[in-house]
Amino acid sequence: MQNQRCHFLILFIQFVSIISFCYHIMPIRGQDETNVIKKVDVGIILDLETNVAKVMHTCILLALEDYHAANRSAIRIVPHFRDSKKDDVEAASAAIYLLKDVKVQAIFGPQMSTQTDFVIDIGNKVKVPVISPATSPSLSVKENPYFIRAALPSSSQTKAIAAIVKNYEWREVVIIYEDSPFGTGIVPHLTDALLEISTLVSYRSVISPSANDDQILRELYKLNTMQTRVFIVHLQSFLASRLFFKAKEAGMMSSGYAWIITDVLTSLLDSVDPSVIESSMQGVLGVKPYFPRSHELNNFTKRWRERFRQEYPNMDQVELNVYGLWAYDSITVLAKAVQNVGTTAIPEVKKPDTKENLSDLDALGTSELGSLLIDSMQNITLKTGLSGDFRIINGELQPSPYQIVNIIGKGERSIGFWTESDGISYKLTMNGKTAKSNNKQLGTVIWPGESTIVPRGWEMPTSGKKLRVGVPVKGGLEQFIKVEIDSKTQAVTATGFCADVFKEVIQSLPFAVPYELIPFRIPDTLTLPDYDDLIYKISSKEYDAVIGDVTILANRSKYVDFTLPFTESGISAVVPVRDDERKNAWIFLKPLKTELWITTGAFFVFIGFVVWVLEHRVNKEFRGPKHKQVGMIFWFSFSTLVFAHRERVTSNLTRFVMIVWVFVVLVLTSSYTANLTSMLTVQQLQPTVTNLNDLITNGEYVGYQEGSFVKDVLKRMNFDSSKFKSYSTLEEYNDALSRGSKNGGVGAIVDELPYLRLFLNKYCRKYIMVGPTYKAAGFGFAFPKGSPLVPDVSRGVLKVMEGEFMNNIIQKWFGNETDCPEKDGMAITSDSLTLDSFKGLFLIAGVSAGSALLIFFLIFLYQNREILDTDDSIWQKLSTIAKVFDEEKDSSNSKSEMPEDNESQTATPFAASAASPEILLHLASQSPDIRISDSLGASLTEEGFSTPEPGTPVHETLIGTTEER
């Protein structure tokens, strides 16, 4: 007993000693300011009735505990929690209380955007930082200098959602959003993101937070009657649960539908009733901010669950979400900012100078610490944040990767990621970037109705409404479109090329498209509706589509979307042909152009002159009187045209020139004969008008198809509209062109190529297509702007055009176009040959003749060089050379063969005979018995004379020579 008393006494003395020690070592406030623990009060405003707020509340407490445990500084952050009770006024009142009575230096919260808007204004006035997880894009950090956004704005996910839509090539979507500032804030940003990928928001469905189940069901039935089957849902969990439950009831969670939910629902999926998830949300896609799993996060999650059970023991367990992680990191960043400000002095709130007639807001004063904190927090990074790389730049939390999930069973399954820099990827690397080795596709998705087939994104309305298809009704050209109305049943049927193509395209689609035809009459006057008015019926929503011979034009594409064209394009003109030119008396001159005729004639004269020069001194045939020599020049060269020359040439240079020239003549005559034959045997179709401008100049009438846009094209070409005449049948085209402008017809028909080819196929020998072809896009089917049918129908058009069906349908309605020899209206003509085709030949002939002529003169001058060496004047030298050239060249061949002893005897008679041939003729005439010696005959032969026949007496040749002279 005594030992127990002693033991108790010792413990009491130790306890008193500890208290005394603490009393003596801890300074009294105001005596040593450097060691006093300073408190920084922080206000926390949350909707504590919500699960998100309770998660954030627990995270904030753990964040402060972890910070104080890790930092043994003289500053302690003291949180002051206030409940905003889901009311904007309560949130504002809580902020005023915290600033006025508690003197907080910063405020975290509220979590709702409308509440935050009030609190931000108060924070700006008092200069106290407001760190809020509100996600509304309408809250601007730039316009509120004391506002720090501690969560990603809802607008940051819009590009991720747009990437999903683009990945599956959906052309239209419906946005379902809450009728509140929370819901409406994302719509403009989401619409813009979808427009960037050319996706149309076909409808915006607004649901009030107070809507009952019947109102939600009626809205869903309305959506179900539309074509679009892709829905983007931006609702809070309590309203989204009811929407999906009713969507299941309306049959909209089956195969063919696609649903995408935003991060506010995907991140808080655990707050949705599990029964709703399992029964009504299977196959839904969702996006949410991605935070990487780490060892620190796993340990924190265990601690958080234990602490959450302590704070809320009577509440069902909820899961830790990204909003709780952002709250943890935000408080950690705030604590670091307070530490960065310094521990030497914590400025107090500066009170206003006067206290008279002050409102509650005026009585708050301003915080001197707030400006220091905001400067420290606006650009701060927390590399080891639980939510990942927690970076605040210019007061805004920077985007992190978004995770794309597929709701399967009771939870979700990751199918990919999206980042601002790399877009969609199946996996992420350790540093949060997309892996380059992966393709840019999402994983396998189980769609609503447990389907693995990607929804097309639209369907025909389930209301039983048919596609209203407008078709033009006109009086002619029924090969393209013809509309008939049954007099009893009023049923509308369409036949023709365009109608058959449309039917085949619709049948080729992988789904049924019921439609009904609505006739639209195209009258034959200029003032009544035309094809443009038919197109406008789509933009006015009277028609759902237009088929027929409707041309794709730029001005029409402003109001409708066209499919790919199924016909050729272009605008041209058809005019009558002239009479057959085979009746022309001078057609034999047409095979060669004028310049070719002149060049050929000049070369004939030139070649004859060259041959005369080369043969004049050595050939008797090229000697004699001047008129004979001139005649020989023309006769010899032109006789080669028909290869009738019989003159013998002796010079090798002449033979070389003649070989080349005969080849040139052969080519010329062959080409002339072939072209003349073509002109005389092939029908020549020459247009009466070769240029449309001639029609304007001559003031002629121009025809076009009634209701066609060609009328506007003619106006732009400066045609007088009073000269226009419209027709509707091929027979009317023929009649108008046959009569001509002067007889009540037209000078030309301007129309699109399909019509003109059909016309020429019927009247191919009377008319011809002229002028340039003005480009057009061809015929296409028209649908409303953004219609999801356009891509599928365009693919159907390509499929039909590539198959055998198109050839069969063309043969069916237009016949065999090859039956007309002038196919496509193009005449088969043989143009006159031009000089360009023979320049090479003439060049070779000219060079060869000129070279021979040059060589001859060089040799001649060399042989007579003694003349050039004299002292005579140049004129005398030229005169002497000319006389020598005109003299006949002596032949020494026979003389060299005779014996020397007989030279004196034969020289005199031969010289006499050569000098005076008249003597020989005189002797022969006086005495018939006189015969020329063999030596004389031999000498004459050697001089170049040719005998018609071998063995003919020489006197016959001499007689012939006398007659020629």
Word description of this protein:
Its main location: membrane. This is Glutamate receptor. Keywords: Disulfide bond, Glycoprotein, Ion channel, Ion transport, Ligand-gated ion channel, Membrane, Receptor, Signal, Transmembrane, Transmembrane helix, Transport. The protein has 965 residues and is an alpha/beta fold. It is 43% helix and 16% strand. An 8-stranded mixed sheet has the order 7-6-8-9-10-16-17-18, sandwiched between helices. A 5-stranded parallel sheet has the order 2-1-3-4-5, with helices on both faces. Strand 3, helix 4 and strand 4 form a beta-alpha-beta unit. Helix 2 packs across helix 12, helix 9 runs parallel beside helix 11 and helix 30 crosses helix 31. It starts with a helix and ends with a helix. The C terminus is likely disordered.
Largest sheet: 8 strands, mixed
Number of strands: 30
Distance between the termini: 185 Å
Count, helices: 33
The mean pLDDT is 79
- Rg over CA atoms, rounded to whole Å, is 54 Å
Strand content: 15-25%
Share in helix: 40-55%
How are the strands of the biggest sheet laid out side by side? 7-6-8-9-10-16-17-18
Membrane topology: Multi-pass membrane protein
Keywords: Disulfide bond, Glycoprotein, Ion channel, Ion transport, Ligand-gated ion channel, Membrane, Receptor, Signal, Transmembrane, Transmembrane helix, Transport
Protein name: Glutamate receptor
Pfam family, one: ANF_receptor
